[in-house]
Structure formats: C-alpha cells, structure tokens
Amino acid sequence: MDMQGLMSESSRCADLLRCAYNLGEQELELYRFLGGGQAMRSDDIAVSLGRNPSSIYRSLQKLLSCHMVNRRTVNMEGGGYYHLYSARGAQAVKKDLEACVGEWKSRVDELLEMFEKEMEGSR
C-alpha cells in the first residue's frame, strides 16, 4: 500500500497498518486472529490457521518489531521454555501508529522545506 492508495475513499484501517509498517495480508490475518483472546504458542497458531510454522514465526517476528504483539516466555518444569504470543490491544497499537504518522509528517514537512532548493539545484 502506498500513500496515494491510502488517500483513496475506499481505504480501510488495515491499509494504514500496511502502509505504516509494510505489513502483508498474512501479518494482518495473524494480528486479527491473536486479537481473539488467549495467548498462544506459534506452533498452535500455525495449526489453527493451517499455515507453515516457519511462516507464522516470520510473521510474528514482524508483528513484534512493529509492537503489535506481545511475547511472554514460559519456563517448563523439566527444563526448556516456550513463547506465548498475544495481540496488543487496538488502543495501544493506535497510539503507536499515531506516533509513527506524526514522525512521518515531520519528515515530510522537512523534505517539503528543501524541495524547491533540491529540485532547482538539479538543473
């Protein structure tokens, strides 16, 4: 999703996430799925969604980097550990998204200030 597509009347909230965080449909589907409630292990998520475990892991890593999911480590009694993943609430994600859009707007404003000078200097 690019900026022009985002400005379309038909844009949805998911399009904003796609544009801001460069998310694909798989990440969005996973975020929606995890928003349904309880924290889950990645292998259980893969089975529930009928997807490859390594694909789920990559999508979870991307969502973690965007701060859209939480990961909790659980230690097992006999040794070892596993991770449980859950979606962050829409309000928290919205707050982060607002900050992202604010930073983006500030950068665009800076570029617009330099626009004429840079464009005329390239002649």
Highlighted features:
123 residues, Arc Repressor Mutant, subunit A, 6 helices, 11% strand
Largest sheet: 2 strands, antiparallel
Give the CATH H-level superfamily: Winged helix-like DNA-binding domain superfamily/Winged helix DNA-binding domain
Could you give the order of the helices and strands?
HHHHHEEH
Order of adjacent strands in the largest pleated sheet: 1-2
Helix segment tally: 6
| CATH architecture annotation name | Orthogonal Bundle
Uncertain runs with pLDDT below 50, 5 residues or more?
none
Fold and architecture overview:
This protein has 123 residues and is mainly alpha-helical. It has one domain (3-121): Orthogonal Bundle (Arc Repressor Mutant, subunit A), CATH 1.10.10.10. The chain contains six helices and two strands, in the order αααααββα. Strands 1-2 form a two-stranded antiparallel sheet. Helix 3 packs across helix 5 (53-65) and helix 4 (42-49) packs across helix 5 (53-65).
Quick synopsis:
With 123 residues, this protein is mostly helical.
Secondary-structure topology with pairs:
Elements: H1 3-6, H2 13-21, H3 25-34, H4 42-49, H5 53-65, E1 69-75, E2 81-87, H6 90-121
Helix pairs in contact: 3-5, 4-5
